[in-house]
Design a protein that fits this description.
Layout lengths: L4 H19 L5 H24 L9 H22 L9 H4 L30
């Protein structure tokens, strides 16, 4: 399998570069490495079902077959990640300073129920 690693890395990098250009963001080496490992898992998952689907009689070499699977799997994974709303860039700690729970003093926080005239169950009436 070691001789297939460069093929998989090249196909994954090509897909990542193409989608990164489309999304106006840089190519991450870690992303290529992660997707390369993910392709290996995909090839060997379920008793190597994907890898066993290669048929040399159909005219494709093993390297080309693995490259085709790598490109398709990487594109599918990146497309799936793009659609997932929870996959956003991490916010730097400096950007979070002074924000969030506990950032303001108790005097600056509104008291429970003061934002509207309705009564909230479990809160004392005003």
């Amino acid at each position: 399998m070691a001789h297939l690693t460069p093929v998989i890395q090249a196909r994954v990098a090509r897909v990542v570069m193409r989608l990164a250009r489309h999304l106006d963001r840089g190519v991450q080496r870690e992303e290529v490495a992660d997707l390369t490992q993910d392709v290996f898992l995909h090839l060997l998952d379920n008793d190597a079902r994907t890898l066993r689907a290669w048929d040399p009689a159909r005219g494709m070499s093993l390297r080309n077959f693995v490259g085709l699977v790598a490109g398709r799997h990487a594109a599918a994974q990146l497309t799936r990640r793009k659609k997932n709303l929870w996959n956003e860039e991490a916010t730097a700690d400096e950007d979070l300073a002074g924000k969030g729970p506990g950032a303001s003093s108790p005097r600056e926080r509104p008291s429970p129920g003061s934002c509207c005239s309705c009564s909230t169950p479990g809160w004392p009436a005003r």
